[in-house]
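Continuing from yesterday's entry. The apo prediction looked reasonable, so today I'm repeating it with potassium ion included to see how the binding region is handled. Same sequence as before; SMILES copied from the compound registry.
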Amino acid sequence: EVNNILSNIKSLTPARFLTIGYLLVISVGTFLLTLPITTVDGRGLNIVDALFTATSATAVTGLIVVDTATYLTTFGQIVVLVLIQIGGFGFMTTSTLFALLLGRKISFRERIIIREELNHFTLSGVIKLARYVIALTLGIEFTGALLLFLKFKNTLPISKAIYFSVFHAISAFCNAGFALFSNSLENFVGNYYVNIIITTLFILGGLGFAVIADLYEKRRFVTLSLNSKLVLLTTIILILIGSSGIFLLESSNQNTFGQLALEDRFISAYFQGVTPRTAGFNTIAIGDLTQGSLFLIIILMFIGASPGSTGGGLKTTTIGVLIVATYSLVIGKDDAELFRRRLSQITVYKALAVTIVSLLVIILATLILTITESFKFIEIFFETVSAYATVGLSTGITGGLSTIGRVLITIIMFTGRVGPLTLAMALGERERSNKVRYPEEKILIG
Amino acid sequence: EVNNILSNIKSLTPARFLTIGYLLVISVGTFLLTLPITTVDGRGLNIVDALFTATSATAVTGLIVVDTATYLTTFGQIVVLVLIQIGGFGFMTTSTLFALLLGRKISFRERIIIREELNHFTLSGVIKLARYVIALTLGIEFTGALLLFLKFKNTLPISKAIYFSVFHAISAFCNAGFALFSNSLENFVGNYYVNIIITTLFILGGLGFAVIADLYEKRRFVTLSLNSKLVLLTTIILILIGSSGIFLLESSNQNTFGQLALEDRFISAYFQGVTPRTAGFNTIAIGDLTQGSLFLIIILMFIGASPGSTGGGLKTTTIGVLIVATYSLVIGKDDAELFRRRLSQITVYKALAVTIVSLLVIILATLILTITESFKFIEIFFETVSAYATVGLSTGITGGLSTIGRVLITIIMFTGRVGPLTLAMALGERERSNKVRYPEEKILIG
Ligand SMILES: [K+]
Ligand SMILES: [K+]
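Holo prediction written out below.
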């Protein structure tokens, strides 16, 4: 019996193994959040809200149906924090951590799964990378917490200052977006110190471990891998587009920038310009932003962070590959080329597939929510993309969602975290047995 | 001097030649629409509205800033109708028509341009196809007009009935969406006869001449070209999605289906489900539809009709190729395969490029319009996609657009008609001289 179950587990594909792993973590989290000691009112969360919150934390999304700061007890908050950290490490890296702690040998099969999890190319050095991930994560989070503590200790009691520093450092580096203030970071709107620490944490978390390792080893841009170059280039461009876009689109909005001094506008535009990818904190109420800003944020959320990172979305490289392929075609090249390297057909097709599947999920989910909910279209569209890209920003409608809406957003958060392609492949995996190559035939385009 | 100009024209690439040709037609149309005899008030249109209307007609879009029925004189309406017919034939087919009428020989160079215009693969049979296009267009339009006349003669004087029949048959087959009723076809909401004639005309027009010719010659599905099969398959699926989607999304809307009998709902769902691709007529006020229907229509408009047709949008084959490539990858194939045929890398890249360029244009235009206009986001988004895909449906904001808005929508209609890829290639064409093939390097996706 037990052997049977074990051999069933062993025969699972990596994609299915990861999907089931995340489901288990979320199940445990949901159970814990229904306990009476989880909420201040001593009742625990109902099953739908517990599932929503556990999924939001594990998927490092940050959408909330109950206020983390005032509705959950410290126990409840710590459950959320642990789920965030598990989600941030990635399920397999967490397992590796336990294995390393227990001194156990890591099997070849487990290495394959870890490789899938970290989205890395070769098995050699995967264990090294997993150790590196854990050391790096804890190191950066500790540094972040220390720097935040220097600020928080001025206004909070020492123990609370430590707790708040640790919570927000982890939540920021993991791109989780959960906060212990009811209004996210709106109290710190003009505070350069806090703004820079938080944004640096989540931008680093969103670069992806492979890129940080590559940067640390190579130091010079030209010697970096093509992947690292593309990640850095797209990240910089998106930061510039986001920040300058918000600055322009909010400049005449009396509810937001109209109330801020010029120097506060700079840091606010920067913060709101980088948080959509896919941190989820905010220093300005999202519901007060102009329609233009909301649409820009929707696009930035959809693109998201970099692969193998704590962030979500389509990923910077996906959109980068699509634009490189488009540009190459327009200037008359047959292949997609970047920095004197050629992108393979399968790379471009993969980028395409992730984008198409994601668009289909978002369109279908948005359509259903327009029926079940009675909010404005842009609010529903914003919420859907935020959930799918595991961002956590909201115009303020999350708490007002119907039960069907809550369940649907939960499913979207999970789908967005496990990755549309991983999910699609988990559902459709089969042997590559088609040795027949059909003759080519043309199709009219455009 | 003259020789110099002529040789300059001869050295133009097909894409540039077509772009300039459309600009010339629109310029003449704009001039005519500013004449006093164009409008009922005897003042003629102002330059912005004349440019808007001429572009809308030539691009067979159908968005209107002045009411065609009551604001324009019969002369003005006929200017619009001629522009629609020129747009419908396509600029080069129109030139071919004149050449044939004048008995002139058609040069090899002109055949290349015609090929580009009709989006056809080989030079052989292009002239045959052009003649076919003209005969087919006039034949179908005549039949449509005759059938409409049988209905219109019951309520209108004979001469007016003839005029209305011809105008709406041409406008429908050319997917133009201009009507001589101020409320489009809302008077005919439950009229199966008129609904079926109009929809059949614009669906035929939206299939593309090549497909109609293929169907006429081969008759059986299995013997059709891969292109024709994909066009028919996607068209049928999109008709089913559109009609059933509208039926469901409007079923509890008191402003629309709430006022209709069940049998009227069927035909209304069908009409509103097929008109987004990209006819532009409506039998229900678009502004009264639910947000869900508007979003569904936005998606359908964006996809649009089939290549080489009178319709606009991304094209059914473009989206078909992207979905085939995605599906092939998900089930574990290296190549995109359909009906036992392989799609070449360049076909998939082209489909990708058209989609990416189109998305960029629509996102940028929508962002600008959210600043310059003060309508709801979904209304602005709807209007932008409608203009780009040359659909002509509107929630009712066209007449309320600012001057900047009108000019921007004009530019979008033109861009949408000339085709984003044609435009991009016209701007970026160069010799394919890169014989160096760079080494391949991997990129992380998703
Ligand atoms: K997040
Ligand atoms: K149209």
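Comparison notes:
- The pocket of potassium ion (ligand 2) is lined by residues B 60-62, 175-177, 278-280, 390-392 (CB under 6 Å).
- Residues 429-434 of chain B have pLDDT under 50 and may be disordered.
Will overlay with the apo model tomorrow.
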